Amino acid sequence: MTQSLRVVFAGTPEFAAAALAAIHAAGFAVPLVLTQPDRPAGRGMKLTASPVKRYAVEQGLEVAQPTSLRRNGKYPEEASAAIDLLRATPHDVMVVAAYGLILPQEVLDIAPHGSINIHASLLPRWRGAAPIHRAIEAGDAETGITLMQMDAGLDTGAMIREARTVILPNDTTGTLHDRLAQLGADLVVQALRDLEREGRLPATPQPDEGATYAAKIAKHEAALDWRRPADALARQIRAFDPFPGAFGTLDGAAVKFWAAEALEMPASQEPGAILDVSAQGVVVACGEGALRLTQLQKPGGKRLPVREFLAGFPLIRGQRFAPAPADA
Q1: Residue 216 DSSP symbol
Q2: Which ranges of 119-243 would DSSP assign to H, the alpha helix?
Q3: Considering the domain 219-312 in this protein, what is its CATH number?
Q4: Residue 193: helix, strand or coil by DSSP?
Q5: Residue in 246, 232, 221 with CA at minimum distance from that of residue 297
Q6: What's phi and psi for 215, nearest 5 deg?
Q7: Digit-coded pLDDT (tens) for 87-107
Q8: pLDDT surpasses 90 at 118
Q9: pLDDT over 90 (residue 258)
Q10: Which of 53, 185, 216, 291 could make a disulfide contact with 49, Cβ separation 3.0–4.6 Å?
Q11: 268 among the known binding-site residues?
Q12: What are 38-56's pLDDT values in tens digits?
C-alpha cells in the first residue's frame, strides 16, 4: 500500500481553512499546520485563534505559529526555529493559502515537490493581497482560482491549473469569497491526488502581460466619492461587503451602505445630494447617474433594509452627503 502524500499546510483565514479541511478530509497526511499568531479581536480585543488554527486543533493536527519565517527579519530566532521545525517534519509538499507571512526561497525549497499556492484570481490578473475585492470593484466578468508553484516573487510563480467562476451582478466580496474558497479547496485536492499518482505537477510559466496588482484595501477607500459614476460606486459597495463597508458622511454621521443599484439619469444636483427618499431606496446624485441605496446602517446600528433604516434615521430630499476626503 502506497503511503499517503504528506502535506504541510500554511494559511490563516476562512478561505484557507476551507482548503485545509478538504485536504484533511481527502485523507492526506497533514503532519504540520502553520498559521499566524493569535490576534486581538472583537469588542474585548481578546486573543483569538485563526480559523485555520481552530480547525487544526479540533482535528488534533500539530500547529506552529511563528511571527516570521525570515532569518534576516525582525524575529530571526523565531524564524530559525520554525525553519528547523519544517526541516525536521517529513513532508512531500507544502500548500499555502492566504497565509499572510512572507515565505523566503529557503522555505519554499524544503518540500521535495515545492510549495503550491491557492490564489483567488485568474493570474496574472490581480496578483497581491485583495484579489476578490479588486475583481468586483473593477467590474470583471469572471474570476477564479489559480494554483501556482510558489517562488520568491509576489504571485509570480508558474501556474499549475485554474478554475473559473462568473462574477454575478449581485456578488459581494463575501459571497464570491465563499464560492472561491470551495473552488480552491476542490482544485487543490484534485492537484494533490494527481501529484500522488503521477509524482509531478506540470506548470506553465506565468506571463507578465496582463498582470495587475490587487493592493490591500485601505480604510480611506471606504468613503464614497460621489463625483464618480454611479455604476462604479455600486461595484465599490459590493466589493467592500463585508469589509471595510462603504460609507458616506451626513451631518457628521458615517452611514454605511451595503446594497445599492446604479440608475441612469441626467445630473440635476451636486454629487452627494439626496434626490429621492422612499421605501424603494434613497437616491443620491453621482458624477454620472444616481445611486439607489437599499440597505444602510447608522453608526452603532445594524444593517437594515431601507424602509426599516428610515424609521430610525429619517432622511429628506435635498440633504447632501459630504464630499469624500481628499485621499479617498
Answers
A1: P
A2: 131-137, 173-198, 230-239
A3: 3.10.25.10
A4: helix
A5: 246
A6: -65, 150
A7: 999 999 999 999 999 999 999
A8: yes
A9: yes
A10: 53
A11: no
A12: 999 888 889 999 999 999 9
Average predicted confidence (pLDDT) for the chain: 95
Are the beta carbons of 32 and 89 closer than 8 angstroms?
yes
The Cβ of residue 46 has, within 10 Å, a number of other Cβ atoms equal to 10
Q: Are 119 and 162 in contact (CB under 8 A)?
A: no
**Which residue is listed with cell 464560492?**
179
Tallying the residues shown for the chain, one arrives at 328
The residue ranges of every structural domain in the chain are: 6-214, 219-312
**CATH number of the domain at 6-214, please?**
3.40.50.170
Q: What angle do CA 190, 174, 186 make, to 5 degrees?
A: 5
Q: Does 124 count as an annotated binding residue?
A: yes
- pTM here? 0.94
b/e code 284-309 from CB counts within 10 Å (16+ = b): bbbebbbbbbbbbbbeeeebbebeeb
User: What is the reported pLDDT for 266?
Assistant: 86
Is 121 annotated as a binding-site member? yes
Round to whole Å and give the CA distance between 113 and 85: 18
C-alpha–C-alpha distance, residues 194 and 307, integer Å:
53
Q: What is the pLDDT of residues 3-20, one digit of tens each?
A: 689 999 999 999 999 999
Q: What is the DSSP string of 104-128?
A: -HHHHTTSTT-EEEEESSSTTTTEE
Q: Summarize pLDDT for 151-189 with one digit per residue, the tens.
A: 988 999 999 999 999 999 999 999 999 999 999 999 999
Tell me, what amino acid is at 262? A
Q: How many CA atoms lie within 13 A of 109 on its CB side?
A: 4
Cell numbers linked to 263: 440608475
Q: How far apart are CA 195 and CA 149, in angstroms?
A: 13
For range 251-274, the mean pLDDT: 94
